[in-house]
Write a structure and sequence with these properties.
The protein has 137 residues and is mainly alpha-helical. The chain has four helices and no strands. It has one domain (2-100). The longest helix has 26 residues, at 2-27. 26% of the residues are buried.
């Protein structure tokens, strides 16, 4: 059961990273993508969506009832949420490191639109600096 759960978690994580990459490429959020090339980002995202699913279902028999060692609905929900959260953290970390040299001035209230021109880490830092200056006043 534990191996099945880990396999499911990794599959969800990789597929979610792929979905975020495709969405960021389509939405023009250059601060979230791993590659400068829009085509390469979409291709990598598509591979990250399809390859883990193919691996998951072709590596072992996965049509298992929860009482035979499979995951019940509650476990699936937990591992899906954890996999999605992991994908978000990994995407934000890697894209902030890869696009570290991306410099752009953003307003503190730019929201998700700030990711068109800057990384997540830099946008958070700008927002925190602005809040700390306003807090002192």
């Amino acid at each position: 059961m534990f191996s099945f759960a880990i396999d499911y978690y990794l599959t969800v994580s990789m597929a979610a990273i792929g979905v975020v990459q495709i969405a960021a490429a389509i939405g023009g959020l250059q601060g979230l993508v791993f590659f400068r090339s829009n085509i390469l980002t979409r291709l990598t995202g598509a591979i990250l969506v399809v390859a883990p699913a193919v691996w998951f279902f072709s590596s072992k028999p996965r049509n298992i009832n929860d009482y035979d060692g499979g995951l019940d609905a509650n476990e699936q929900a937990i591992f899906f949420a954890l996999g999605s959260l992991t994908a978000l953290v990994v995407t934000l970390t890697i894209s902030s490191l890869v696009n570290f040299r991306m410099r752009c001035r953003v307003g503190p209230k730019a929201g998700l639109d700030a990711l068109e021109n800057t990384t997540y880490a830099r946008a958070v830092l700008v927002s925190l600096r602005c809040r700390s200056k306003q807090w002192r006043i």
